[in-house]
Amino acid sequence: MFQVKYKFGAKYNFVFLLKIEKHRAMIKKEVLDAINAQINAESYSAYLYLSMAAYFEDMGLSGFANWMKVQYQEEAAHALKFFNYLTERNGKVVLKAIEQVPVDFGGIVDVFEKTQVHEAHVTDLINNLMNVAMAANDHASQSFLKWFIDEQVEEEANVQKILDTLKLIDGQGNGIFMMDREFGQRVFVDPNAAV
User: Is residue 165 part of a domain?
Assistant: First the structure.
């Protein structure tokens, strides 16, 4: 409840008491809790990729750093997409602390191997989230999550392609500089922007 005061000249003062309550029954608790946990996981992913970008910057590989910065932006956008979905469904967003991300890596190939493992983990999280929505018979959340399932197929394929290329060039030599130049051209496309 809050007060709104209006003053019309010196003679008239009006005070309105407004009580605003939000009905929060549009999303089941188990789905709400699972999506809040996913917001945290997406935020962790964003920080992980930003840490990897910093690692590449320290190596003088600005193109690889750019690739990871775009990954950071994508993961932050995914967290926001979940955030917006919860608010649209009248769910309460609960932001929790983000776990510390690694800051040291064992080279370019190691970074992308860790990226591949992490993306597989995120795929498992999204699949489990879909299972929660299905068990709750929440068709709206199932429809919403379909986009993320498709996105994870693309994410894993992209990282696998990079790893395959890195292994062909043994993670070194002129091929790294060519990849660095190519990765420097990558740009972020916001999935939350109106199409």
Answer: yes
Residue appearing with tokens 């600005």: 62
Read off the pLDDT of residues 4-42 as tens digits, 9 standing for 90 and up: 555 555 555 555 555 555 555 589 999 999 999 999 999
Could you tell me if residue 18 is inside a domain?
no
Residue 75 belongs to a domain: yes
CB-based burial label for 150 (10 Å; 0-12, 13-18, 19+): exposed
CATH number at 164 reads: 1.20.1260.10
Range of the domain at 160: 26-183
Q: For 143, list phi and psi in degrees, rounded to 5.
A: -65, -45
Q: Show the beta-strand stretches assigned E in the chain.
A: 2-8, 12-18
pTM comes to 0.85
Residue 118: closest CA among 79, 164, 152 = 152
Identify the helix (H) or strand (E) that includes residue 67. Answer: helix 62-88
DSSP H/E element including 150: helix 139-168
d(CA 67, CA 96): 27
192 in a structural domain: no
